Amino acid sequence: MSEPIRVEKIIPKGQGLAKAVIARALELKLPFEIRNKSRFSETLSDGREAHFFLPRGNVLVDGDILVADDGSMIKVSAANQQVVTIASNDAHQLMKAAYHLGNRHIPTQLGKGFLRIEPDSVLEVMIRQLGLEAIHELAPFEPETGAYGGGHRHSHAETFDSDYALAQKVYAEHEKPHVHGPGCSHHHHGDHDHPHEH
After folding, report:
1. Is 158 a member of any domain?
2. Backbone φ/ψ region at 169: left (φ over 0), alpha (ψ -120 to 50), beta
3. Are 66 and 48 a contacting pair, CB within 8 Å?
4. Residue 32's closest CA among 102, 108, 101?
5. Which residues lie below 8 Å from residue 155, measured CB to CB, with a gap of 6+?
6. Of 46, 55, 78, 146, which is most buried by a Cβ count within 10 Å?
């Protein structure tokens, strides 16, 4: 059994490579969950095992070329996966949906007349409340990457949890009992800055 190959280099969309070179590359179909990682292992189409150590912060997209330490080239393809497609002829409604999804830092694919997200029952309820249909299907998922920093993203649940925890902390700090001493600069009910006349 041959040793696993190591893959570290990305050539975005195969820029600068001849079409004949790209045509000879091994194809590797990956779902978004894996394309969003920098460290993973996969079995290539020729049966070899490959360990990927890619630059952090990158999201692989359909057409990227990866170069292994032995010179092998691997063409990335977006694999079909479970997605929710939001299709409409009403551009304004789609814009509203895109706004709400973006506000929650949800990876979203933008297409002509449709949006596409990963399945999420909470988001699907929101989509339907906006008057749009959420259709489950198998399709490649290629969300916009710029909106969440090239791979760094939070689910809406994580965002809510972190925001809620921060709010709780701020509230706790505000409500913490305060011992007043000579150096305290707070003014309190019943305290006066002016002298009393007796």
Report:
1. no
2. alpha
3. no
4. 108
5. 105, 106, 120
6. 78
User: Are 65 and 87 contained in the same domain?
Assistant: no
Between 26 and 179, name the one with better pLDDT: 26
Domain range for residue 129? Answer: 80-148
- Complete edge-to-edge strand list for the sheet that includes strand 5-11: 26-30, 73-78, 65-68, 5-11, 49-53, 39-43
Query: What gap in Å lies between CA 14 and CA 12, rounded to an integer?
Result: 5
Helices (runs of H) and strands (runs of E) counted in the chain: 5, 10
Query: Quick one: pLDDT band at residue 145, thresholds 50, 70, 90?
Result: confident
Helices 121-129 and 91-103, packing angle to 10 deg = 140
Residue 142: pLDDT above 60? yes
**Side chain identity at 89, as an amino acid letter?**
N
Which of 148, 172, 193 is the endpoint of a domain? Answer: 148
- Residue 53: its pLDDT value, please? 97
Q: What is the pLDDT of residue 14?
A: 96
- pLDDT > 80? residue 39: yes
The identity of residue 30, as a single letter, is L
φ and ψ at 160, to 5 degrees? -65, -45
Residue 1 pLDDT exceeds 90: no
* DSSP SS3 for 34: helix
Tell which residue, 59, 68, 80, has the closest CA to residue 25.
Answer: 68
Residue 112 and residue 94 share a domain: yes
